[in-house]
Amino acid sequence: MTVNQILSTKGKDVYSILSTNTVYEALTVMSEKNIGAILIIEEGVLKGILSERDYARKIVLKSKSSKKALVDEIMVTEVFTVSPSDKLEYCMELMSTKRVRHLPVVENDVVVGIISISDVVKAIIEMQKETIAHLNSYITQ
């Protein structure tokens, strides 16, 4: 299974903010959209990513104000991305080795979607269910 197959099921919605937004504004969008991370895209270029983990570690634990801190103060700028044709096994390996939970999907230098570890796990579970059903069918024939 590929990243594109996940996107065809979950959708290709991409939510983004600017690095000059406050962390509070970013969290508001994340809450409204029910997402765990948001991309920072400026003039069509992926500049970073901000996750709930970043907020917890860089704002809450340091007693900073999310209404005063800007996104560019806490966003991660080393963003690992995948392409629509990448296999799920590669995505899982990348997420595991780089310790990230979200991977923007980039095609021709444009962000066309984002996948989370949850999306990958769900897809793998579905693949395993299909394999089990196929094997059961084979055995009972």
From TrEMBL:
SMART domains, per database record: CBS
UniProt superkingdom: Bacteria
SUPFAM superfamilies, alphabetized: CBS-domain pair (SSF54631)
CDD domains: CBS_pair_bac_euk
CBS domain sequence ranges: 8-66, 75-130
InterPro entries reported for this sequence: CBS_dom, CBS_dom_sf, CBSX3_CBS_dom, Diverse_CBS-Domain
Pfam families to which the protein is assigned, alphabetical: CBS
Alphabetical UniProt keywords: CBS domain
Record protein name field: CBS domain-containing protein
